[in-house]
Design a protein that fits this description.
about 525 residues; alpha+beta; 17 helices
Length: about 525
């Protein structure tokens, strides 16, 4: 039972956010009825792609990519309609019809939005969801080392298409194959290649975005600020990104993976205490993250090279872990995706192309950034007390350094760069609504305990690990206020929040496209 729970947890931490973004133009939105909105839609979009709340198919379409069962409850405010476009013109029509008829739009790609804000509202509101599930094509140009990918594709589909074009090209995005491309890239996106090639968003070279005027923009026709904002500024603010052109990165024919578990009785506290200083300083070709659950931790690594080279490197740089050649698993980069995800490399197609993920627990997530090594006593408390409490979840530690830390903070909206030792993700889950009290209490108390040891002023968080407890927008005169957004916005984006808000003010000054944690518009006065 414990092993199945551990397996479930390891599946659950795959994350990253769904939802793309939506921009706005300047003409006013007249009051109208939902019937007017539907009448507008059916003039431009085939009815088979539209689902009203009263439709028998509506619950299945809404629920098919809800990954967190907390947001399937009757308490969640659901959309009036779901639109499932198959091309950019359908998205353009949805945006214009929504604008003209007073129906707001939210956008969902993979459904991993931790707070579900891409498909639900926290307060009564007339809104529709543009669900990009049917727009998942990938076009790879191996010679140019680029690919175009639709926002509705899952990361696994992108990775698989790349592997079919070349066995020595890769893309540095999230670990979990079921994450939607649109959400992952919109919020930054990182995985096992973060130390070598940085975040996914900084490897985006062009986009196709539908703005609220119904225009299809690309990098050449949008402002520099707008292009900057869509690559890491989070979803639901800057336009519905239809597709992304990404730069593919070279990887060797063979990569090496190891997973080494250590318990408290085997000295895990001393080992992880050493890891926090060593891992951020290792060569960029080596990434060693830690997944801590109960009184154990698994040191999970990817090395861009062979076991023959990795083994002496580990024995020199991190002998405390006790890694040797028997721990090596050599494979291609594409085989490493299911191996890291599920522990097997012989199921590439099944794992990467599977869109029928039935693992949908109730879940809670939080995140932190760490700039100073923890005192050893903190690690002792984590393993000996916190992770063995009733309702305890898991903690995932991703080391930074190398490429991700070398990029300037203002280069993209994602600001967690120089000086970061590692990121923490706190993950907890349960399988019945009434079983949430202990996990939710643990998550809150664990987060509070960690406050003295993590980043400060602001206490930073990762935008793709969306956390509504950090704050939510206040709406005054039908516009989200800059000051309320600043409470949570600086935690995700630091000083980049102001530039994001100024950009929002230029392309969506009346804040038509919004959710509880979308960027509010800041209008610059001259």
């Amino acid at each position: 039972m414990a092993s199945s729970r551990a397996f479930a947890l390891l599946l659950l931490f795959c994350a990253l956010a769904s939802s793309c973004e939506v921009a706005f133009s300047y003409f006013p939105v007249p009051p109208a009825t939902k019937e007017d909105f539907l009448g507008c839609l059916v003039k431009e979009i085939p009815p088979r792609l539209l689902y009203a709340k009263s439709s028998p198919a509506f619950p299945a379409v809404l629920g098919q990519t809800i990954r967190n069962s907390r947001w399937s409850s009757a308490d969640s405010v659901k959309p009036l309609y779901i639109i499932t476009p198959t091309n950019a013109s359908h998205i353009q029509s949805a945006v214009l019809c929504g604008r003209r008829n007073g129906v707001r739009i939210r956008v969902r790609s993979g459904g991993h939005d931790y707070e579900g804000l891409s498909y639900r509202s926290l307060q009564p509101e007339n809104f529709a969801v543009v669900d990009l599930n049917l727009m998942r094509s990938v076009w790879v140009d191996g010679k140019a080392r680029t690919a175009w990918v639709n926002s509705g594709a899952q990361l696994g589909e992108l990775y698989y298409a790349i592997s079919k074009a070349s066995s020595t090209l890769a893309f540095p995005a999230g670990v979990c194959p079921t994450i939607g491309v649109g959400g992952n890239l919109a919020g930054g996106g990182f995985g096992m290649l973060l130390r070598k090639f940085g975040i996914a968003a900084e490897n985006v070279v062009d986009v196709k975005v539908v703005d609220a005027n119904g225009k299809l923009l690309d990098k050449s026709s949008m402002s520099a600020d707008h292009f900057w904002a869509v690559r890491g500024g989070g979803g639901e603010s800057f336009g519905i990104v239809v597709s992304w052109q990404v730069k593919l990165q070279p990887v060797p024919p063979t990569v090496t993976i190891f997973k080494i578990a250590k318990a408290v009785s085997e000295g895990v506290v001393d080992i992880v205490n050493k890891w926090q200083s060593v891992a951020p300083q290792l060569p960029a070709d080596l990434m060693i993250r830690v997944i801590a659950m109960g009184s154990k931790a698994t040191f999970e690594a990817m090395y861009l090279g062979t076991c023959k080279t990795l083994t002496p490197l580990m024995q020199s740089k991190f002998p405390e872990l006790g890694m040797n050649a028997s721990h090596c698993n050599e494979m291609s980069w594409i085989e490493s995706i299911p191996f890291i995800h599920l522990g097997k490399k012989d199921s590439v197609e099944d794992d990467l192309l599977n869109r029928n993920n039935n693992f949908k627990p109730f879940a809670e997530y939080k995140s932190d950034y760490v700039y100073q090594p923890f005192p050893k006593t903190v690690w002792e408390q984590i393993f000996n007390t916190w992770l063995v409490k009733p309702g305890a979840g898991i903690m995932i530690f991703d080391p930074y350094g190398a490429a991700i830390s070398a990029t300037p903070e203002a280069a993209t909206p994602f600001p967690h760069r120089k000086g970061v030792l590692f990121n923490i993700q706190y993950v907890n889950y349960w399988f019945a609504p009434e079983a949430g009290a202990a996990p939710l209490s643990w998550s809150k108390d664990m987060y509070n305990y960690m406050e003295p040891y993590v980043s400060k002023n602001p206490r930073q968080a990762y935008a793709n690990y969306r956390d509504i407890d950090l704050g939510r927008n206040e709406v005054v005169d039908d516009v989200s206020t800059y000051s309320s957004g600043k409470v949570w916005g600086q935690k995700y984006f630091k000083d980049n929040y102001e530039r994001l808000a100024l950009t929002k003010g230029k392309i969506d000054p009346t804040d038509y496209f919004r959710n509880e944690q979308s960027i509010p518009p800041l209008i610059q006065k001259y």
